[in-house]
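Researcher: Here's my situation. A collaborator sent me these components and asked whether they could plausibly form a single complex. I don't have experimental data yet, so a predicted model of the whole assembly would be a useful starting point for our discussion.
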Amino acid sequence: MPSLLGIEELPRPEIEAILARAKDFQPLQNQPHKKLDTLRGKMIVNLFFEPSTRTRTSFEIAAKRLGADAVSITASGSSVSKGESLVDTLNTLAAMRPNAIVMRHAASGAPHFLSRYLETPIINAGDGTHEHPTQALLDARTILDRTEALEGLRVAIIGDIAHSRVARSNVHLLSKFGVDIVLCGPASLLPPELAHIAPGVTLTHDIREAIREADVIMMLRVQLERQHESPFPAGEYFRFYGLTLEHLALAKPEAIVMHPGPINRGRELSSEVADFQRSVILNQVENGIAVRMAVLERIIG
Amino acid sequence: MARLLIKNGRVIDPASGHDGIADVAIEDGRILSFGPSLSLPGADVFDAGGMIVAPGFIDMHVHLREPGIEYAETIETGARAAAAGGFTSICCMPNTLPVNDNATVTSYIVERARKSAVVNVYPIGAITKGSAGEELASIGSMKAAGIVGISDDGRPVMNARVMRRAMEFAESFGLPVIDHCEDLNLSAGGDMHEGVPSTRFGLRGIPSSSEDVMVARDIILAEQTGARFHVAHLSARHSVRMVAYAKSKGLPVTCEVTPHHFALTDEDIKAYDSNYKMKPPLRAHLDVDAVIEGIVSGSVDAIATDHAPHAGSEKMQEFEKCPFGITGLETAIGLSLEKLVHPGLITLAKMVALFTTGPARVLHLDKGTLAPGASADVTIFDTSTEWTYDVNKSQSKSKNSPFHNRKFRGGPIAAVAGGTVVWRRG
């Protein structure tokens, strides 16, 4: 695998291999000594043009647990603020010969565009409103920790779908495994074209309909920073699209609640739901490291 | 006396309805006559056997970037690209630096063209000062200096009241108003057509409605003011139907389409390749079908390229940061043959008309004809030679074309402007 740019173009066997390898790495997270030397002498650069706590830290820890060196750069204070173009910035970093560049950028397709000019493998850690492939992989790992297979599950993804790279990557991944995917959100954040981006997707504006009989409920953050206009009347979001405990009664008895974080208690889900026993938000974070170890090993190992 | 005899070609002259083998005799920059087996003592002879000989093609919508943005194109290089595409007349949009919104800039362009351009260059003036959409530009003075129409191309007039006044004024000077129809509120922030591909790519969409509502507005204003209203680069299906409706009502409404809008859909866009980024964006299949249907049924008056050169550095960026526009002069004939003539949708004569009498009529140009006495602008092309477009060999200063490496069957062979062969396929 030369680069990991998105889930859409990633073949299913590749996904299965990463998920299986991530499972091998899971026990390591609870060991007192957590470090392997699989990638000793290798180096990754984390280049984040957007603020990130969990993804950047997760990649950094994943690299270090495999014995690689990791350097993290954030856009503020970098040459970007001095007017250098993105291609020139990446060429400069590539000249320092890292084994891979992990990159997050606010522009959809930025890593795809760069990969045409760069030989260094690029791992997409989120590009605009397009894809966030490692998030979908860790979400799949988290679901599979609680069930045998993805096939036949009903997964509801609720919130700001239009601006969500997490939603797009999850839709592509789950669709490849025959999952029944329901996308739910206010009309302005749920363009009808979404029903056609992958097989098995249906849309609804009714959160109850989305949750009914769901095995997995994925809540998304309302991405205020990506909205260029007010997409719904002020104050109405939580009332119609916030997840509450009473909604959960509509789902399957063992249904789990997921969230890519950071969560906004009282905006997209109630505080009780965040702390709910079948909320697996922290398991997702934990799996993030195992999955990113598997991805790094596959790309530069 | 400079004489040129173009022999043995199939002469297609829509203005006279002629379509048949003939020779074309040219003397001192004027057409002497065309007919069978002409002789012209002392003339240079161009053997056009197996080729089509037509009046010089007119591209009524190009961007030449001079003055002000000469690193992307100049009048000289743009004119050479035009000749290499088989065009002998081009009309340049006013979005230069400074904007062509007064007679001084118009005169500068006319003068630069006279000195450096191998083809005829007709400036189009701005509708409003600085194309800012507020105060009318010096339309009358620009007309006196040589403009053939007005347009705030790329920065459309959003204020309907300003557009109404512009139409009234343009009408009194006999100028057409050419509008890049785009409601900037509906299209704000968009990078490509709003549809399934934009949703997949996570790119913000430009809905067809942003074009439709402005076409509707301008047709209504054209009826009210009596102005000649011309829709630039028509791309959306409802817009095509509205133009057809306006024509059926006898309104002075015309339109042009670009080759890329009938050759490509939004599904052809290579992921995040900015050579597929332009306005209006590549639309959906249904829109492309409607555009082609508009050409076939006669609703479309002209094919124009919207040749929009951008320097490589500008296009080598994140998709959303790249400027809109692609080059198009050198691929227009090839694409028109491929998509319209070869499939049998229109005749060759019809294609020639869309490049000659069509635009000449919209702009009231005394071009697009091989009538005796007309200026000797001739386009020679063929319909069978296989060739591959190599953007690196383009005559344009810029290389932003999605058609690099595309194989064509038939294309331009030579361009004759004012009786001189200004380009010939090497």
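Model: Some features of this prediction you could bring to your collaborator: The mean pLDDT of chain B is 97. Residues 209-225 of chain B form the longest helix (17 residues).
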